[in-house]
Amino acid sequence: MIRQHLPILQVIIPLLSAPLSVLLHKRWLVWGLTVLASMCAFIISILLLQQVLARGVISYELGGWAAPWGIEYRIDVVNAFVLVIISAIGAIVPLYAARSVEREIAADRISLFYTAYLLCLAGLLGIAATGDAFNVFVFLEISSLSSYILISLGHDRRALTASYQYLVMGTIGATFILIGIGLAYMMTGTLNMMDLARRVPAVADTRTIRAALAFLTVGISLKLALFPLHLWLPNAYAYAPSTVTAFLAATATKVAIYLLLRFLFTIFGAVLSFEEMILHFVLMPLALVAVFSASIVAIFQDNLKRMLAYSSVAQIGYIILGISFVSVTGLTAGILHLFNHALMKGALFMALGCVVYRLGSVRLRDIAGLGRRMPWTFAAIVIGGLSLIGIPLTVGFISKWYLVLAALESQLWWVAVLVLVGSLLAVAYVWRVVEAAFFQPPPRHAAQYQEAPLSLLIPTWILIGANIYFGIDAERTVSIAQRAAEWLLRGPS
Q1: Nearest to 61 by CA among 72, 69, 52
Q2: pLDDT at residue number 72
C-alpha cells in the first residue's frame, strides 16, 4: 500500500526529479516537472501530518533493516509540521518562478536553476524526515551545495561573492556539525537519533558528549544565522534571484532551527542542554541582541532585500528566544513562529520580486510613488510588513502574543517589554517603505511602470492570504505547535 511508503516518497520524488529535469530540453517541461514534484511533496506532507496527529509517530525502515542497524525515517509531530512548512513554500515558489526566473536568470541556466531547486527541496525535506544523524549531514550537504548554486545564479556579479561567502561559512558550520555527530557516535556507537537519545544519558557527564553538544550548537547556529554568526545571510538574500531568496528565507533557516530543536531536546535532552550546560543563558541574550541589532541595521538599509534579510536575523532571534524559555508556552511560540515567519518572508520577498520584475531594482529611492502604479504589489508589502510588526489579525501577532505569555510565565517581564520594543523597531523600517511608495512623489518615468503579472501576484497573495487567515483562525497551528512543544519537553518515548 502506497500510504505506508509516504515518508520515503516525501524525499525521493523531488530527489529523482532533479536529474530527470536535466534530460528535459524544453523549458516548460522542466518547469512542469518541478511543479508536479513539489506539489506531490506538499500533498504527502499533509497526509503525514494527518497520520501523525491521528496515530502517533511513524517509523519507516529503509531496505528492510530494522533500526538502529538500518537507516530509519521517523516522523513525529515536530518534523511533520516542519515538512508541511517546507513543502508548502516549495510548492508555491515554482508557480511564482515561471516568469520571475525568465527575467532574472540567463536562459541557458534556467534548467540548471530547476535542477538545483529540486535538489535543495529534497535536501531540506530529507533533513526533517530522517531519523539518522549521519543522514542529517548528508542531506544538509545536498541542500547547502544546491543553495550555493541557486544564489550564484543572480544577475548581479556580487551574487558570486555572496555565494562564495555562504559556501565558506556553510562549510565551517557543516564541519562543526560533523565533528559533533562523530563525537556522539564515538561515545554511544550509534547514529540512530532515538538510539542516541537512549544512550546519551549514560555518558552525559563525559567531556566528549558535552563537546559534541557544543560543536553541534555552534554549527547549527551558523546554519540558522543566529547572531553573531549571521554575516553570510544579508548578501546571500540581497543578491540571489528573487525566487531563490523567497524560497531560502522561508525554508532553509527554519530547517536549521528544527535541527537545533531535535538535537537539544530529543537527543541530548532538556536536562543536559539547559540544566547542566545552561544553554538558555547563552541563547536568550544572543536572541535579544539579534532582535535589536538586526532591526536597527535594517532601518538604515537602502536595498529592500537587505532590509528584509536583516529583519530575518531579528525574526530568528524571536524564535530562539522562545526556545530559550524551555517551557511549553515558549516552545509553542518558537515553533509557531517557524510557520508564521515562513509565510511572512515568503510573501514579502515574492512581492519584492514583483518590484524587481518591473523596475529591475529594489532600492528605496527607486520605489518612490509607485504604490499607486503597482497597488496589488505594494498592498502585499504593507500587509506582510504589518505581520512582521505583529499587528492583530496577522500571524505575527499570534507568535509575539505567545512570546510575551512565555516571558510573563517565566517571570521575566523585562523580556516581554523588549519583545514589544523590538516590534516598534520593525515599525520604523516598514514605515520607510510605506512612506516611499505612497507619500513621495513618483519620478517622471513612473508612468511606464505597470502592475506585476498575475503569475507573480497570485502566488504572492496566496501567502498574504495565509498571513491573514492564520492570524484570524490560529487554533489549528497553535494546537499543533503546542503538541510539538509538549512532545519535545517530554522527551523521546
Answers
A1: 72
A2: 83
φ, ψ of residue 130 to 5 degrees: the values are -70, 150
Peptide bond into 94 cis (omega under 30): no
What's the rounded Cα separation, in Å, for the pair 208 and 393? 48
Q: Which stretches within 189-279 are classed as H helix?
A: 193-199, 207-224, 233-239, 242-261, 269-270
Give the CB-side neighbour count of residue 284, counting CA atoms within 13 A.
20
Instruction: Summarize pLDDT for 275-321 with one digit per residue, the tens.
Output: 888 888 889 999 999 999 999 999 988 889 999 999 999 999 999 99
Q: How many Å apart are CA 125 and CA 45, to the nearest integer?
A: 10
Would you say 93 and 252 are in contact if contact means Cβ atoms under 8 Å apart?
no
- The count of C-alpha atoms lying within 13 angstroms of the C-alpha of 249, restricted to the half-sphere facing its C-beta, is 37
pLDDT of residue 220: 92
β-pairing, 72-75 vs 58-61, is antiparallel
φ, ψ of residue 342 to 5 degrees: the values are: -60, -40
* Distances 205 to 183, 262, 282, 372, 477 between C-alpha atoms, Å: 14, 20, 20, 63, 37
Cis check: omega of the bond before 392, within 30 degrees of 0: no
At residue 447 the predicted structure's pLDDT band, cuts being 50, 70 and 90, is: low
Quote the pLDDT of residue 60.
81
Left if phi > 0, otherwise alpha if psi is -120 to 50, otherwise beta: which for 172?
alpha
309 to 33, 41, 144, 218: CA distances (angstroms): 30, 27, 18, 21
pLDDT in tens, 3-48: 778 888 888 999 998 888 877 777 788 888 899 999 999 999 999 9
Amino acid letter at 435?
Answer: E
Longest distance between any two alpha carbons in the chain, whole Å: 72
Contact criterion met (CB below 8 Å) for 489 and 270: yes
Do 314 and 422 contact (CB within 8 A), yes or no?
yes
The residue assigned the cell 516522523 is: 75
Q: What are phi and psi of 189, to 5 degrees?
A: 75, 20
Helix extents (H) in 360-453: 375-389, 395-409, 413-439
* Distance from C-alpha of 127 to C-alpha of 140, rounded to nearest angstrom: 6
Nearest CA to 113 among 98, 129, 132, 135?
98
CB atoms within 10 A of CB 468: 16
Angle at 155 (CA atoms; ends 293, 342), nearest 5 degrees: 45
162 vs 26, higher pLDDT: 162
Residue found by looking up cell 517557524 in the block: 338
Q: Which helix (H) or strand (E) holds 343?
A: helix 328-359
Give strand pairing partners of 359.
none
Q: What is d(CA 178, CA 138) in angstroms, rounded to the nearest whole number?
A: 10
